[in-house]
Design goal:
CATH superfamily of the largest domain: HUPs
Structural class: alpha/beta
Number of domains: 3
Largest sheet: 5 strands, parallel
CATH architecture of the largest domain: 3-Layer(aba) Sandwich
Strand content: 15-25%
Number of strands: 14
Helix content: 40-55%
Length: 410
């Protein structure tokens, strides 16, 4: 099949070896102008070296984009997701999944600004990220051409990649010449590790894989107590100090790290059809989820709370599979956001050796009525004798079924 005529392409560029190889491959394979985009999502790396690397590889200064997206990432992607208490397959807090639509959005914005006719990502042909990036691209710019090098080139080994880099004078760090024991992806919400040493699900994750959390066994013997204030479902204040979304998550990460919170060893079902074993560290997000459910417990009506829990798996699956920009995700988001209008108040959380435990919650909109639930003589609004009729009505069909079983001797 003949290659498409690509004049200008926007590459999601980290400055690392793999995306630098992709950059040069785009130039040599398509003979096109390459624009690099590097997103600061709070991964904790110095990003200016990516600019220097791009310049070294012949990219024009005006074609190098490095953008600090930490506030936008937490405010417009992480927080809306946490309003839903989104967890994939009961455990995964979607740290990688939620970052992809923002990167895709920025690539498309740059493509439209500079008149590029293509975008490019470095995701492999076996993973979920290729789907997430490309669904985002097509949702935002249906006629965009997508270049996915790992599905196109014939390089299949580390040795071939190194040979390509050497042939094109791409600098190779000494620690990149050998096979990495595992691969990582990081942002302000989490760090994920997978591959190589982690591929056998029967083996325990080696200690050296963890980078973001203290071993819970080595965490302090004394608990740390914090308060988190929420306004309309979003965390805004920690221990009385108002913080921006990104600063708040960073602070929760510090607290979670020191107390060994947020480790997860998971075998998950990828959207592309295979199972994958990975290790995730989400210290701040683990605390935030516990606290958010804590404030919802006193502010959400039972019907709304239970409906949210029914909708959540579908919402989480949409994010995991890359459908952030889909109408169904937006519909669910509208319902979730409506439920959060009175999710305001303060939660007290105990952090101790890998655990985030809600120990107190209060709200000016609380539905909790101590006089109503007390075992002592309570309000006239609830007469315990009324429960007899309530139970009989709910038992009617069960009694009818029981009579039939008895009659038919089942």
């Amino acid at each position: 099949m003949s290659k498409p005529d690509i004049r200008k392409v926007v590459l999601a560029y980290s400055g690392g070896l793999d995306t630098s190889i992709i950059l040069k491959w785009l130039q040599t394979t398509y003979n096109c102008e390459v624009i690099t985009f590097t997103a600061d999502l709070g991964q904790g790396e110095e990003l200016e070296p990516a600019r220097a690397k791009a310049l070294l590889l012949g990219i024009k200064p005006d074609n190098i984009f490095i953008e600090d997206l930490r506030e936008e990432f937490v405010r417009d992607y992480v927080f809306p997701m946490f309003r839903a208490n989104a967890v994939y397959e009961g455990q995964y807090l979607l740290g990688t999944s939620i970052a992809r639509p923002l990167i895709a959005k920025k690539q498309i914005e740059i493509a439209e600004k500079l008149g590029a006719d293509a975008v490019c990502h470095g995701a492999t042909g076996k993973g979920n990220d290729q789907v997430r990036f490309e669904l985002g691209y097509y949702a935002l710019k249906p006629d965009i051409h997508v270049v996915a090098p790992w599905r196109e080139w014939d390089m299949r080994s580390r040795e071939q990649l190194i040979a390509f880099a050497e042939a094109h004078q791409i600098p190779i760090a000494r620690d990149k010449r050998g096979e990495s024991p595992f691969s990582t992806d990081a942002n302000l919400l989490h760090t994920s590790s997978e591959g190589k040493v982690l591929e056998d699900p029967a083996g325990e994750v080696p200690d050296y894989v963890y980078s973001r959390t203290l071993d819970p066994e080595q965490a302090p013997d004394q608990p740390t107590y914090i308060t988190i204030d929420f306004e309309k479902g979003d965390a805004t204040v920690i221990d009385g100090v108002r913080l921006t979304p990104a600063a708040l998550l960073a602070r929760l990460n510090e607290l979670g790290r020191a107390n060994g919170i947020g480790r997860l060893d998971l075998v998950e079902n990828r959207f592309v059809g295979m199972k994958s074993r990975g290790m995730y560290e989400t210290p701040g997000g683990t605390i935030l989820l516990a606290a958010h459910r804590g404030i919802e417990s006193v502010t959400l009506d039972r019907g709304a709370a239970h409906l949210k829990d029914e909708l959540m798996p579908k919402y989480a699956e949409l994010i995991y599979n890359g459908f952030w920009f889909s109408p169904e995700r937006e519909m669910l988001q509208a319902a979730i956001d409506l439920s959060q209008q009175l999710v305001t108040g303060r939660v007290r959380v105990k952090l101790y050796k890998g655990n985030a435990i809600v120990v107190g919650r209060e709200s000016p909109y609380s539905l909790y009525d101590q006089d109503l639930v007390t075992f002592e003589e309570g309000k006239v609004a609830y007469d315990q004798r009324d429960a007899a009729g309530f139970i009989k009505l709910n038992a009617l069909r069960l009694r009818t079924l029981g009579q039939r079983r008895k009659k038919m001797k089942l």
